[in-house]
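Good morning,

Attaching, inline, the backbone tokens for the sequence recovery test we're adding to the shared suite. The designed sequence is right after.
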């Protein structure tokens, strides 16, 4: 039931976590086929050299055997060492090439992952119930079918090759040894080539299935995706509260700047912009605070409480709110309008500080 809920593709974090555990996609059949093909290619190209070395060794053994009355342990050991050198000279390059291509193909599939997670002890690997579950799984059935196909192909090809050789074996007794070896080598190489081609087809199908099975196992449920998002990005509710708190703190800091303003331009309650202009220090008036609706009401209230001048100018209030950010100087296109406002401010400030006439006696 749990698997039916896993309908979502694995996220990048899920893939990264699985990779750290050593759970990566890899088709072993692709590795095997690549190794066999390289081994076959090497064997075909090195076969003349291998046959030549075997022939020389054969004639050498025959000459030594014909010239000796008896063979001691030392002589036998020498021949065995020479035989080992001949076999190694022919086999090691092929085995080395097969090992190298297996390493490269496997590394390309896993992106050369090196991890110690697979070496750690896990109880489910020796759990009999888990073992039975794996034994009767779809994956085990697929592996069984592949093994049966491979074994059947090999048995059929070996049988067919042997039957062909048996038919011509009487004639081979009358041919030269090198010709007989070339014929047998050609038949064996042809058999190996057919095996490789069939195995390549099986490996291609296996690659597609293994990829599908791997992606299926990585699937996640909608709840798992949500939980992962909460872990990586944080709970949306908590983030929303955090942003709300940050906005409130920012608003409070802005309101605290209103008493330093020279004037607040408003419209009449929807927009409010507080400006300050120090003619000796600032190149232009600067916006200390701005707000809309509730924020505008708070700015106006703070201005009234602090005795900051308030001017009602709806077009200018809207334009400044939309065009200028807090702690920015007003753009040049507002110089004329703001200059008129500042002139009004200076006029009001002069009136407030002008001495009142004394009452007549």
């Amino acid at each position: 039931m749990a698997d039916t809920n896993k309908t979502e593709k694995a996220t990048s974090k899920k893939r990264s976590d699985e990779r750290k555990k050593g759970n990566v996609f890899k088709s072993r059949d692709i590795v095997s086929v690549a190794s066999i093909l390289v081994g076959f290619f090497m064997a075909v190209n090195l076969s003349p050299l291998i046959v030549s070395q075997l022939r020389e060794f054969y004639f050498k053994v025959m000459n030594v055997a014909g010239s000796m009355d008896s063979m001691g342990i030392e002589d036998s050991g020498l021949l065995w060492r020479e035989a080992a050198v001949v076999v190694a000279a022919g086999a090691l390059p092929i085995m080395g090439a097969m090992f190298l291509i297996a390493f490269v193909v496997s590394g390309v599939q896993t992106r050369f992952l090196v991890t110690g997670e697979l070496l750690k002890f896990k109880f489910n690997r020796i759990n009999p119930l888990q073992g039975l579950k794996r034994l009767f799984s779809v994956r085990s059935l697929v592996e069984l079918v592949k093994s049966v196909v491979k074994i059947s192909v090999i048995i059929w090809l070996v049988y067919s090759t042997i039957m062909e050789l048996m038919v011509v074996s009487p004639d081979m007794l009358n041919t030269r040894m090198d010709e007989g070896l070339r014929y047998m080598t050609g038949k064996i190489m042809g058999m190996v080539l057919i095996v490789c081609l069939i195995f390549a087809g099986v490996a291609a199908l296996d690659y597609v299935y293994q990829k599908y099975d791997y992606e299926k196992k990585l699937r996640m449920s909608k709840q798992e995706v949500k939980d992962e998002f909460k872990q990586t990005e944080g709970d949306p509710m908590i983030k929303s509260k955090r942003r709300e708190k940050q906005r409130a703190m920012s608003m409070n800091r802005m309101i605290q700047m209103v008493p330093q303003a020279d004037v607040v331009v408003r419209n009449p309650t929807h927009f409010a912009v507080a400006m300050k202009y120090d003619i000796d220090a600032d190149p232009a008036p600067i916006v200390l605070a701005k707000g809309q609706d509730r924020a505008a009401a708070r700015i106006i209230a703070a201005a009234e409480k602090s005795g900051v001048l308030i001017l009602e100018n709806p077009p200018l209030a809207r334009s400044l709110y939309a065009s200028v950010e807090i702690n920015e100087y007003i753009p040049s296109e507002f110089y004329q309008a703001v200059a008129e406002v500042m002139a009004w401010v200076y006029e009001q400030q002069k009136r407030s500080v002008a001495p009142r006439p004394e009452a007549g006696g």
